[in-house]
Amino acid sequence: MNTIKIDLNRRFGVIHRDLFGGFAEHLGRCIYGGIYDRGSPLADEDGLRTDVLAALRRLKMPVMRYPGGNFVSGYRWMDGVGPVETRPARPELAWETTEPNHFGTNEFVNFCRKINAEPYFVVNCGDGDMREARDWVEYCNGAQNTAFANLRRQHGFDAPHKVKYWGIGNEVDGEWQIGYKTPQEYARAYKEFAKVMRWVDPSIKLLAAAISNWEAEFVERTKLLLDQASEFIDYLAIHWYVGNPDNDFAKYMTVSEFCEERISVTEGMIRAMKLQRGIQQPIAIAVDEWNVWYRARGATLEERNNLEEIYNLEDALVVAMHFNAFIRHARTVKMANIAQIVNVIAPIFTNPDGLFLQTIFHPFEIYSRTCGQIALDPFWESETFSGGDYSGLRALDVAATLDEEKKQLSVFVVNRSEKDALETTITLDSGQLAGPVQAYVINGPDIKAVNSFEHPDTVNVRKTEVRVERNALVYPFEPHSVTVLVSAVR
Ligand code: AHR
Description:
The chain is built from eleven helices and 25 strands. By secondary structure, the chain is of the alpha/beta class. Helix 3 (130-141) packs across helix 4 (147-154), helix 5 runs parallel beside helix 6 (218-229) and helix 10 packs parallel to helix 11 (361-370). The structure holds alpha-L-arabinofuranose.
C-alpha cells in the first residue's frame, strides 16, 4: 500500500527562494561560448546569448554565484573592469588555461539583471588579500565620493550595484585549491576579510566556505570557524557532488540519504556551537555548489573535457531528490546553487548555433516554478528497496509545499523503482483539494536516456490533469520518474 498524507498545518518552515540559485564560473564554455559570445548572431547588444538568457529565465534563479569556484582563488577582479581593450590576459592556474578577462564584474551584474537574479560574488581568499576584497565591495556598492566607487562611475555605472551576497574564499579546505588554508588559517583570514568588507558596507551578507572536503577534518574546521568568526557568518557554505561511477541504479537512488546526512550533520554543528557559545544571530546553510559530476572529471584536461557532462534520466531523478531534501530542511538551508548553469556540469548545453536542455533542466524548472513558500511535513509509506549501504528505503521520495497566497499545494514525488509503477493514494488530512490536479511528469524511455541536439526531447515534461474524488486522488507514479502534483486547496 503506497500512501501520501498531507496536513497543511504540519510544517517544516519557510522556504527561501534562493534554494533555486545558480553558479557561473570562468571555466570551460560556461562564460565564453555559453553566457557570453560577442560576435555570435545569437548575442544581444551586450554580447549575451539570447537563447541562453531565455532558457535561464525559465529556471527563475533568484541568485547567481560568480566567478568561481577554483577559478576565484587566483582571480584579480581589477583585471575584469574598465575598457575591454586594456584588460590583461592571465595564465589561469585552476583549470590550466588563459583568462582573457573580457567578461568581469559589470558584465556579470548586467547579466544578472537580465535574468532577474541577485549577484553573489566570491572574493579571492586563495592568493588574494583583504585589501583587494574590500576594494571590490567598495567598487560594487560604494555610494560616496571614494576612489573605487568613482572608478565604477568612470566605467559607466553611476548607481551602486548593491551586491548583497559575498562569499569569502572557495573550497579553501582542499589541497587542490590555490592558497589552500588550514582550519586555523582560514578562520583567521575569514574574520579579518569579513571585518573590513562589512566596514565598507554593513548591509552585506557573508558566506563562509566551510566544507567541501568531507574526507578531511571538517568537524574541527567548522567548529573553529564558528568559534572564532561566528558574528561575521550569515551562511555556512558547503559543497558536494554526487554520481553513479559503479553504474548501480539502486545505490545511486540512495542519494536522498547522502543529502540528509550532510545537511543534518551541518545543522547539528551549527546548533551545538550556538548553544555552547551562546551565539544569538541566525546562521543558515548555503549548499552553494551541488550537482551530479563524475564523468567529465579527472586529473588531465582530456579526462575533464571542460566538465561537459551529458546528463541522463537517472541524474534528473537525483537532482529532484536534492530539491526534496532542501525543501525538507527549509528551516536551515536558505540558499543552494546548482553548479553550474551552462555547458560546464549544467542544465543548458550550447553550440554556436543553439542549445538543448539537458535532462536535469526539467526538474529544476518544474520545482522552481511550482514550489510554494511553506515547506510541509508529509507522511508517506511505500514499497521499499535496498541500495548501497541501505535497506528498507521507501521507493517514493516525497516533499510538499504550500503557496499560501495562491492557495496552492505542490507534491513532489520521485519514484525510484526502475520497473514498477507505484499506485499511490494521496489524501489531505486538513483542508480540501479544490482540484482538478495538474500532474507534471518527467520521464523517458529508460534510466540512461539523454537529450542531445539531434533528440532534444527524449527526456521531457508531460502535463496531464488528474481527477480528485472525496478529497483524495489515486495516482500511479511511473517507474523512474519525477512527478509534481499541483492542486488548488481550500
Ligand atoms: O564546479 C566545478 C568545481 O567544483 C569548482 O570550481 C570547485 O569549487 C569545485 O571543486
